[in-house]
Specification:
187 residues; alpha+beta; two-stranded antiparallel ribbon; elongated
Length: 187
């Protein structure tokens, strides 16, 4: 990877041997491996046995505003924002931090936001077999900010709904009300 970075620096007219760029190929390789570490992770490894039997809770569980950072697979430029995850348990619950870890596994790959949203929802379905799952991802894409149309304020919103979130409009509406901050404040 470091040789590839040196080549890229040369292709854009830089001198990879100048002082400020001497360590850039190593830094770039480490950064790229970190930003794509999701390829080396599995859902069972990040959930780490934090799935528990719970027969008495059949109400919605929502974690909002989980920060995510990813790389657009079309330009390898970052996109970043938040993911909101809701699910209704059906005999199993998952540690709340594990929802964020699941999102991170898929965000730390070359991605398109549409697929990222669906992968998070599908992974939660596979992990806990809930009555339903809803995932909303809201991101700013630097490929739209730094190049192309250069629209700084543009946000992309994608959703994936499964089970009762798909079949029951009231359940879906409750989820969207919660993630849009229309529920009673905590504390």
């Amino acid at each position: 990877m470091t040789n590839a970075c040196r080549t890229i620096l040369e292709c854009i007219g830089e001198n990879p041997d100048r002082e400020g760029l001497l360590k850039t190929p190593d830094r770039w390789a480490k950064a790229l491996l970190f930003m794509t570490k999701g390829y080396a992770q599995t859902i069972p490894s990040v959930t780490n046995d934090a799935i528990f039997a719970e027969d008495h809770h059949h109400e919605m569980v929502v974690v909002r505003n989980i920060d995510i950072h990813s790389l657009c697979e079309h330009h390898m430029v970052p996109f970043m924002g938040v993911v909101h995850i809701g699910y209704i348990p059906d005999g199993k619950i998952i540690g709340l931090s594990k929802l964020a870890r699941i999102a991170e596994v898929y965000a730390r790959r070359l991605q398109v936001q549409e697929r990222l949203t669906r992968q998070i929802a599908d992974a939660i379905v596979d992990a806990v077999e809930p009555l339903g799952v809803a995932v909303v991802v809201e991101c700013a894409h630097l490929c739209m900010v730094m190049r192309g149309v250069q629209k700084v304020g543009a946000k992309t919103v994608t959703s994936s709904v499964k089970g009762v979130f798909e079949s029951n409009p009231k359940t879906r509406a409750e989820f969207f009300s919660i993630i849009n901050g229309m529920c009673q404040p905590c504390g």
